[in-house]
Amino acid sequence: MISYKPFWNTLKIKGITTYALINKHNISSATIDRIKKGNGITTMKINDLCNILSCRVEDIIEFIPDNQQHDTPNTK
Questions:
Q1: Distance between CA atoms of 43 and 57, rounded to whole angstroms?
Q2: Residue pLDDT, tens place only, 23-70
Q3: In a designed cystine with 59, which of 2, 24, 50, 55 is the match (CB 3.0 to 4.6 A)?
Q4: CA separation for the pair 20, 9 (Å, rounded)
């Protein structure tokens, strides 16, 4: 599962609001809504956010393994 928790922490640290992302940096409100709901965004949008926030991908998203991945036997 992809988590956007680092994104919210990065916004707080950088002192940037979602309002500024939308109105100053032209990030769509739909993108912010997708992040809020934990839905996927494109790598292009991740790239845009990294450029705007002067940060790394890890400061926007993190991978959290699903429990199912650990419980499923290897079928190879």
A1: 10
A2: 999 999 999 999 999 999 999 999 999 999 999 999 999 999 988 555
A3: 55
A4: 16
Residue 62: strand pairing partners: 3
Q: In this structure, what token pair is assigned to residue 60?
A: 């926007």
Q: Count CB-CB contacts under 10 A for residue 52.
A: 16
Reduced to 3 states (helix: H, G, I; strand: E, B; else coil), residue 3 is strand
Long-range contacts of 61-69 (CB under 8 A, 24+ apart): 61/2, 61/3, 61/4, 61/6, 61/7, 62/2, 62/3, 62/5, 62/6, 63/1, 63/2, 63/3, 64/1, 64/2, 64/3, 65/1, 66/1
Give 20-69 as a DSSP string: HHHHTS---HHHHHHHHTT----HHHHHHHHHHHT--GGGT-EE---HHH
